[in-house]
Design goal:
The chain has a single domain (8-243), classed as P-loop containing nucleotide triphosphate hydrolases (Rossmann fold, 3-Layer(aba) Sandwich), CATH 3.40.50. The protein contains eleven helices and five strands. It has a five-stranded parallel sheet with strand order 2-3-1-4-5, sandwiched between helices. The chain is of the alpha/beta class and 253 residues long. Helix 2 crosses helix 3 (55-61) and helix 6 packs parallel to helix 11 (229-243). The N and C termini lie far apart (39 Å). Helices cover 38% and strands 11% of the residues.
């Protein structure tokens, strides 16, 4: 595997139905940054046989060998940029996928309260599980990185980002060793060449966006379907474990 360049490579680990694509927009709008959209998606589909919208198009659009994906992520930086933001979905990382490449990254974690994740997820999918929303793998990745560093890696909560984008992104940038950029707070609407081929199935809202939206109401546990409540209860300890390390909004000064 090639040695990393001086570029700051940020691996942002998120479950589905979060603000992960808006976060990608924020970084892509920086003049110094390149972004990668869910690079292990095709590899995950090929490994699991999962039936997702646009499955064949996704598989055709990316390498399906996870080792090849890992090699690409530690190889030459797109467009020679000095920041490389990689949007990763935790549920894409299958147990036998390589992880050694992640030591070259600033590994960060984007979390959202399980009630909010489940309420949003079931608007798109009928069936849901703890694994489908990426909770066990996010926990494992967090603990792996905390053990490697000797302290908690950067964590941000989607609700905190929406409540104070400038403050939380400033704190995140500091934790990643890069300066905050005002360009991260607003972006032009529309699709990007860097968006995954699956964008037509999933990115309708973010394509209309020009920045982070207002804070979203937090669904109550009692409002969840009965079959979702055990999943929320199982996910909550992981959420609270990571939430305890969430970055506090900082001044941009």
């Amino acid at each position: 595997m090639p040695l990393p360049s001086p570029t700051i490579r940020i691996a942002m680990w998120s479950g589905p139905r979060n603000i992960s694509t808006a976060m990608m927009r924020a970084f892509e709008n920086r003049p110094d940054a390149a972004v990668s959209d869910e690079p292990f998606y095709a590899a995950s589909l090929a490994a699991t046989g999962a039936d997702h919208p646009m499955r064949e198009a996704v598989i055709a659009s990316q390498p399906t060998d996870p080792a090849r994906v890992a090699e690409d992520l530690t190889g030459p930086v797109p467009d020679g940029r000095t920041v490389w933001y990689q949007k990763h979905m935790t549920h894409h990382m299958q147990p036998d996928f390589p992880l050694d490449w992640s030591r070259h990254m600033v590994n960060c974690f984007l979390i959202r309260a399980p009630e909010a994740v489940l309420a949003s997820y079931t608007q798109k999918w009928d069936a849901v599980s703890l694994e489908a929303i990426g909770v066990p793998m996010q926990a494992a990745l967090f603990e792996r990185e905390a053990d490697r560093l000797g302290h908690a890696p950067p964590v941000i909560d989607a609700a905190d980002v929406l409540a104070d984008p400038r403050g939380v992104l400033t704190a995140l940038c500091r934790a990643c060793g890069i300066p905050f950029s005002e360009a991260m707070l607003a972006w032009p609407p529309g699709r990007r060449a860097s968006d995954g081929v699956w964008a037509p199935a999933w990115y309708d809202a973010v394509e209309k966006s020009t920045g982070f939206g207002p804070p979203r109401p937090q669904p109550a546990f009692e409002s969840l379907r009965d079959d979702l409540k055990p999943i929320a209860e199982a996910a909550r300890p992981v959420y609270l474990r990571l939430k305890a390390s969430a970055l506090v909004a900082a001044s941009a000064a």
